[in-house]
Amino acid sequence: MANLTLLYAKAALTGFTRRGSTLPESTVDTGVTVDPAHLAAYNGVCGFGVRDELPTTYPHVLAFPAQIALMTGRGFPFPLPGLVHVANRITARRAVLAREPLTLRVRLANLRPHERGRQFDVVSTASVEGEEVWVDVSTYLRRDGGTGGTAERAGKPEPTAVWDLPGDLGRRYAAVSGDRNPIHLHPLAAKAFGFPRAIAHGMWTKARCLAAFEGRLPAAHTVDVRFKAPVLLPTRVDFSAEETGDGWRFALWSARPHLEGAITPVR
Fold first, then answer.
1. Which domains, and CATH codes, for the chain?
2. Hey, how many other C-beta atoms are within 10 angstroms of the C-beta on 80?
3. Using an 8 Å Cβ cutoff, are 210 and 56 in contact?
4. Nearest to 124 by CA among 115, 133, 116
């Protein structure tokens, strides 16, 4: 598995000189087995209980080193600093047990225009003995001009839960996810990138929301979210969930929306 510390150092030293208009066609394949202690630590940080089944978001942290390896590798056109994670869609085709060895594959795809620049997908899959059981599509935005656009603002939904998020949440999630982007770790580091305080990881917010549905999800489902605005730490946020005719809609709010998502069954 890739050394994330070295990859982040590489990104900081070489990333700002990158230019290009195509994505490399390379893939990263790796086999992993779940470390029960790591899984327990992840579950604790994200609010999941102790179960034999992996949380739907957990394989994302297993694939994350390969994702970073591709985005710091030869031919990747954008600097890693400044990329914005704007959306994530995960499809679990069935429940995955912690004891099942996984084969992970990660690739880059679908570079396309965006009103604020360009965006692309990082596609990760997990297979068990040749059966694809999990698919993750993370969409990143590279801002480089564009027309801007106006974000939609709906009325704030009625909260079903209120969560207090501590100031060290970014450091705690970084310890289990490997994502040690400085904007999540310390207020001074975050200020260097234009944030008044450290911000929560987007994938933590998705995982924490998903944990609120534990025990109510079908074995096969898709969880699709859009990351709307950073969650500054420490803070208090409102979580809302509404059952639909075919799943759930949910959101995370404070003074503004931070995340909007939907859960739908896969048939």
1. 4-265 (3.10.129.10)
2. 20
3. yes
4. 133
* Residue 67 tokens, joined: 């994702």
Start-end of H helices in 105-220: 169-177, 187-192, 202-211
What DSSP designation does 101 have? Answer: -
Q: Which residues of the chain have pLDDT under 50?
A: 1, 147-151
Task: Please write the tens of the pLDDT for every residue from 72-120.
Answer: 998 999 988 889 999 999 999 999 999 999 999 999 999 999 888 899 9
Give counts: helices (H), strands (E), the chain: 6, 10
Q: Which regions of 44-193 does DSSP assign to beta strands (E)? A: 84-92, 102-114, 117-128, 131-143, 161-165
Coil, helix or strand for 166? coil
What does the buried/exposed string (b/e) look like for 148-182 if buried means 16 or more CB atoms within 10 Å of the residue's CB? eeeeeeeeebeeeeebebeeebbebbbebbbbebb
pLDDT at 81: 83
pLDDT value of residue 18? 57
